[in-house]
Amino acid sequence: MDWMPLLSTLTGAAIGIAATLIADRNRWRREEARHALEVRRAVYTEYASALKDAGEEIRAVALGDHMSESARDAAVREAFRGTGLHTASEQLWLVGPPLVVAAGNEAFHSLRRMRDAYARGVAVGSAEDRAFIQQRRTAMAEMRRRMREDLGIGPLGIE
Q1: Residue 147 near residue 44 (C-beta atoms within 8 A)
Q2: In the predicted model, what is the mean pLDDT of residues 28-42?
Q3: Which residues cross the membrane (predicted)?
Q4: Are 101 and 92 a contacting pair, CB within 8 Å?
Q5: How far apart are CA 9 and CA 75, in angstroms?
Q6: Contact partners, residue 82, CB within 8 Å, separation at least 6
Q7: For the purposes of burial, counting CB atoms within 10 Å of the CB of 27, is it exposed (0-12), middle (13-18) or buried (19 or more)?
Q8: 2, 55, 59, 147: which has the fewest Cβ within 10 Å?
Q9: What is the rounded distance in angstroms from the CA atom of residue 137 to the CA atom of residue 51?
Q10: Mean pLDDT to the nearest integer, 112-126
Q11: Among positive and negative, which fits the CA dihedral 78, 79, 80, 85?
Q12: Residue 110 above 90 pLDDT?
């Protein structure tokens, strides 16, 4: 009996199976990378939106009239809590790479400093308020830059 045709067939089958497994593994890796990118994009969008919403909410409260300092403090803090920012922050901490998380954390803290200033009575539009706004803008721009970089999107060049 001639074993060459049988060995050739088995070798061809083994090569075919190996090539299929490698191709499937590569396809799976691409799909996983694409899915991870989409998850990060969604988390980044939610976090940046929550930061903006929180900023608008605390600013609106700071513009209002309050019976007392404690009422203003409570209203500003409640506005901050009510935006879902803490949930979005935790999501960022879970899926973001270290540089994005650090930039996001700095943006969060810049907003929290602004919240605390409004809670203690800093007037919207004052020099102190403008300084907090500039810190927040700088932190937000850096956070967005890091997020865009992580997503493979080039810089905007307008911030």
Answers
A1: yes
A2: 89
A3: 6-24
A4: yes
A5: 77
A6: 57
A7: exposed
A8: 2
A9: 11
A10: 92
A11: positive
A12: yes
- Tokens 């830059």: give the residue: 145
- Token pair, residue 62, equals 């700071």
Other CB atoms within a 10 A radius of the CB of residue 28 amount to 10
20 vs 96, higher pLDDT: 96
Tokens of 69: 């300092």
* The pLDDT of residue 67 is above 70: no
pLDDT of residue 30: 84
CB atoms near residue 41 (< 10 Å): 14
Question: What average pLDDT does this structure show over 123-127?
Answer: 91
Spatial CA neighbour of 96 closest among 40, 152, 33: 40
Question: Of all helices (H) and strands (E), which one includes residue 155?
Answer: none
Structure tokens that stand for 96 in this block: 């973001």
Gyration radius (Cα) of the chain, Å: 26
Q: Report the mean per-residue pLDDT for the chain.
A: 89
